[in-house]
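Consider the following assembly input.
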Amino acid sequence: MKDNPKLNRDPGHAVKKKVTSFLTNNMVTIMFVVLSLLAFQVSGMNSNLYITDIVSRISRNSFTVLALIIPVIAGMGLNFSIIVGAMAAQAVIIYVTHWGVPGFAGIMLCVALVTPLSILLGYLTGHLFNRVKGQEMITGLIFGYFAMGIYTFIFLQLVGGVLPMDNEVLVLSSGVGIRTTIDLYGGLRYGLDDLFRLPLPVMLIIAGLIAAGYQLFIFMRSDRLKAQRFNMIIGIAGSLLVVVLAIVLMNSNSLIRLISIPVATWLAIIALCFFLFFFTKTKLGQDMRSVGQDRHIAAVSGINVDRVRVIAIIMSTVLASWGHIIFLQNMGAWSTYGSHMQIGFYAIAAILIGGATVTRATIGQALLGVFLFHTLFIVAPAAGRELFGDAQIGEYFRVFVAFGVIGVTLAMHAWKTKLQSNQGIRAIKDE
Amino acid sequence: MQNIFKDFVRNFGIPRLIILGFFLLLCVMAVFLGLDFAELMSSSLVRIGMNGILVLAILPSIVCGTGPNFGLSLGILCGLLGGLIAMELTLNGFTNFFAAIAFSIPLSVLVGYGYGLLLNKVKGSEMMFAIFVGWSVVSVMKIGWLVLPFNSPEMAWPIGRGVRVTIALLNREVSQLLNNLWAFNVGGVIIPTGLLLFFVICCFILWLFMRSKTGMAMYAAGDNPRFARAAGINVDRQRIIGTIVSTFIGAVGILVYAQSFGFYQLYDGPMMMPFIAIAAILIGGASIRKASITNVIVGTFLFFGILVVAMPVANAFAADIASMAEITRQIIQNGIILYALMQAGKGDAA
């Protein structure tokens, strides 16, 4: 079909087209904003409580969700095998807890130990994925379950018996196997979070000032078009408004001003965002992008496709294991044989809710997704109680949402590729 | 001679050889440990009969070309719903069992049809899609179990709303119904004749169906869709029929499973069941594109045989018996699915 030039000249039509394409491209996200708002209204939840909860959830989950981006760029879809990285993190945390290294030193030791382990696991996963090109997602999912069997075997049957571990707190009373829950209290708990904390308003003021300063700096140096300068002025004004609001908040007696932000954790997340941003500009990042767009063309232009794909999975696994350390040190007590189980699904659901697809994912989508998904997580039980008199319904509903969103995205992706290939065939026929 | 051996290994697959070897090893160990072999045989037979039909349900979906039915939980849920309706009507014994199957027919036809339509929209990534459709529907039904109007005191929680997590079948005389039918004892081995007979009859009916005109068209559609289309077969329609049949057999399968187990397991119960059934048929020699009744029978025998024998053998070595059986299942099950995916990948590359 050819575009009608007359129609294109009509500005009203262009706007309408833009709006429709915006709506269709961001359908999942928009639906979620509406759903979250409704659920929040219905739940009648205290906003102090909500903000406290969402801040801590964002700080403990963002890192893992960001770990999903690199494989998407490399065209390997959603990496369901990040659960392998999570298990590596848990294995290391069990041993560090056993050795009794507490606090920040313990966290650093965990990171130092988990990195080689996840590199190895990522290497294996990557090679597995190279044998099943086009089916990476289901292979990753099944591989996660397979690895879970091995993880459970090691820590329930071997540790304490074949692998000696003399620790009454960690090992079951029978002498073999790790207990089903591990409490990091007095050990690694808040090892990263407690390094440096600031109250929320102070944090907002600093962030606002930095943002305003950065934009001002760009503004002074650039000689861009008027429209862009106008946008920048709005940006500066917005940042300053945040600062003013934060000062107002500081002097109010709202409980929100007491929320303390784990600055070190947030710095880690921000650092990862910067890393991802600059990584896509490097040679390797560009190679990944071309592999993601078309494997065959990339191979013809001299890129070692298999190697690039393995590196992508290694990076994702390592980042996921770090993310899981952040998650667990914040949680404190965790279930030895269960806390890795949902990590993959929830992280993937989150990034998809943020508007990512099987072939495209950005940092912004990841962060927005974490925010929206966990908003629903917080308010769903309360909304269920208010609507149906049963908090359980809300809890089941949020699990359904996680699986449903993944299912819908996969279906849309499959459907789109099918349509495209059909169109491709038709185009060839037309020629 | 060496070539024949090599061909055999390649066709049979190394993982299957490992699994077979593992099974034989377990049997030898069981003998050396002086375990009660008759009892092991009896419980193996029960496990084969009770799981066999669920494994059989995977067959039509592979044959019609939608790949192993990871969304079998839909059929399982239809069966459970049928079973619960029969319970609600306070039916007893065989009436209850067959009424449950009868109630699940319209449900599974309807669900299978809708599910088949969806699968036709996502050709090429059915498996991944099916997993998440299955899980989403299981989660929706968790809400369903809470709000559906089942009031019979056997099922509803005494306080609060919804039905129980497990529902006992003993009071309705459904528990062990087929297991005890014409059961007899041969040298200490109890043969659950009714259960095995039911499994064999189901296999036979499906075998007949596969040889009917529809069945042959289904084979063709699954084997080579383009060729089938050229031969005038409506491929999409065959895929839908395959999905419906698979869903319905799944519904029957869970009812047979439940009567042997003695309970309906609701809520999270059906979530991972498709994986077990798929692993069994793959162990039996099926691939993601090809499967036969023989694969079903061999796979069921091997997989559930291992699980039954592994438990008491592990008892002698491992600390935690219950978890050891579960771990064995998880590793074998997911290992064989991974292997099948890798085999399919090889086919694509060539």
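The longest strand of chain A covers residues 181-183. Ask yourself how this observation constrains the way the partners meet.
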